[in-house]
Design brief:
The complex is a heterodimer of chains A (about 230) and B (about 230).
Chain A: H1 5-45, H2 49-64, H3 67-77, H4 82-86, H5 90-93, H6 96-122, H7 125-133, H8 138-168, H9 180-191, H10 194-223
Helix pairs in contact in A: 1-2, 1-6, 1-9, 1-10, 2-6, 3-6, 6-8, 7-8, 8-10, 9-10
Chain B: H1 8-41, H2 45-60, H3 63-85, H4 96-122, H5 125-133, H6 138-168, H7 180-191, H8 194-223
Helix pairs in contact in B: 1-2, 1-4, 1-7, 2-4, 3-4, 4-6, 5-6, 6-8, 7-8
The chains are: A mainly alpha (about 230), B mainly alpha (about 230).
Chain lengths: ~230, ~230
């Protein structure tokens, strides 16, 4: 039982092969998740109960249950129904990749929508009234006054959520996908050196998380460039 | 619903296991968080560096990976150590319950470290100076002056950490703990009703997280009761 550094060096290139899959999962599900989040946000701020209530229930369900359980419900659970196996979505839901993207998107949609709502509610009321006083229409007020400020306010929380999305992609390995954690688990099964391999994987995840953290930091600086320090 | 009839007690047992993991992790998380926050606020450079490395490493690594490192890593280490003394033993491991609880509390503890640190900074330094002026020892100041005041500030984010801890417990089924996800898997193999069985798991988690949210709301109200304006 000795710690072998060469194993870390040897396994990193193999795991980088799984990095592509991790990135695909990350970008696809954060894109769909963000779109869903915007839709949910619009439903919640519409002020109509038949739109508010379903959005609220959706968010409540997806924030209250573990993402692993959501992945299992979608991957193992949905094929139970005949009508899903005969629908056009079956070609996506048959593949573990499609299921993972679906589960991660649905999950991140719920979280991100709450973040966006926080940003929306953080916009000062006076600005809205000023826009009204200037005679801007309702849509103009939303797109040119509220949205840019809400986006800036939401960035820090969104970057946190994005980092947890990176971590959540590792759960796709539980439904046989060979992304980075999946590759690491197969290598461990061959070499039986869990410390070296898993720590190498952890280092790669840390580097990715650090990279995105920096990127979001720069984006936030760009969005608040007109604010006096 | 008829499919569920034979499985209620299994789900109940699974839920009890989940709650046990949650209870153990909660205690350990508070301990790790307090140690981490104290280290971050201490004057010692080394303690600060170690605490910083701890929070960076555990907040940036996927929870699943930490769990796998703990479970398989500890198994390898323990087997290696026992082989020195008893060469015949085939394989030794930490029970998944303890490996899992420990891993989860280290992860959530790294988040709690930041929360507690912020809360300690939020306590008025004058209060600490006052207790020192009264001749109260450092240990007593920590437990009777700083913690009760910091707790109120830490509660809102700590409630969120508790929710994510509850949801992380689902991961322990991957290293072989017999909790509700495991029950669902077994039930599926018998009844061929995967959607129903996994949905029950989701609803159990949903009800537990709802209870936690309500308890936290009550605690926050209790902690802030002296700030309420008299009617």
């Amino acid at each position: 039982m000795n710690f072998e550094f060469y194993l870390i060096l040897e396994s990193i290139p193999k795991m980088l092969a799984g990095l592509g899959m991790t990135m695909q999962l990350l970008f696809l599900s954060s894109f769909f998740g963000l779109s869903l989040a915007i839709l949910l946000l619009l439903m919640r701020i519409s002020g109509r109960w038949f739109l508010c209530f379903p959005a609220f229930m959706y968010i409540y369900f997806f924030r209250g249950t573990p993402i692993l359980v959501q992945i299992f419900v979608i991957y193992h659970g949905l094929p139970q129904f005949e009508f899903i196996r005969e629908s056009i979505f079956w070609s996506i839901l048959r593949e573990p990749f499609g299921c993972a993207v679906l589960a991660l998107s649905l999950n991140s949609g719920a979280y991100v929508s709450e973040i966006l709502r926080g940003g929306y509610l953080g916009v000062e009321k006076g600005l809205h009234e000023a826009g009204m006083a200037l005679g801007l229409s309702k849509h103009h007020r939303f797109f040119y006054v509220t949205t840019p400020i809400a986006v800036r306010l939401a960035i820090p929380a969104y970057s946190n959520d994005f980092i947890s999305m990176i971590k959540a992609t590792s759960l796709a390995s539980t439904i046989t996908l060979l992304e980075m954690t999946g590759v690491a688990r197969t290598i461990v099964a061959e070499t039986f050196a869990p410390y070296e391999i898993f720590i190498a994987a952890a280092i790669i995840y840390l580097v990715i998380a650090w990279f995105f953290q920096r990127a979001f930091g720069l984006f936030e600086r760009h969005m608040s460039r007109y604010i006096k320090q | 619903m008829a499919d569920l009839s034979g499985w209620w007690d299994d789900y109940l047992w699974g839920a009890m296991t989940v709650l046990k993991v949650f209870g153990v992790s909660l205690i350990l998380t508070v301990i790790f968080g307090l140690i981490g926050a104290t280290a971050k606020l201490s004057k010692s450079r080394i303690a600060q560096k170690i605490a910083a490395a701890y929070t960076v490493a555990f907040r940036g690594t996927p929870e699943l990976l930490v769990l796998l490192i703990f479970y398989f890593g500890s198994a390898i280490t323990l087997t290696g150590i026992t082989h020195i003394f008893f060469p015949e033993t085939p394989f030794v491991d930490i029970p998944p319950f303890w490996a899992g609880s420990f891993a989860i509390s280290l992860i959530v503890g790294s988040y709690a470290t930041e929360t507690f640190r912020g809360a300690f900074l939020g306590v008025d330094p004058g209060v600490v100076e006052a207790s020192r002026a009264l001749g109260i020892s450092n240990v007593h100041t920590f437990f009777y002056v700083r913690i009760p005041q910091m707790w109120r500030l830490a509660l809102p984010s700590f409630g969120n950490h508790m929710l994510s801890m509850m949801k992380d417990t689902a991961l322990i089924s991957i290293i072989g703990l017999e909790e509700i996800l495991f029950v669902a898997e077994m039930a599926t193999a018998v009844t061929y009703k995967p959607f129903l069985m996994y949905m029950i798991v989701a609803l159990i988690y949903l009800s537990i997280t709802t209870v936690i949210t309500l308890v936290m709301m009550g605690l926050e109200k209790h902690a802030n009761r002296h700030l309420e304006v008299a009617p």
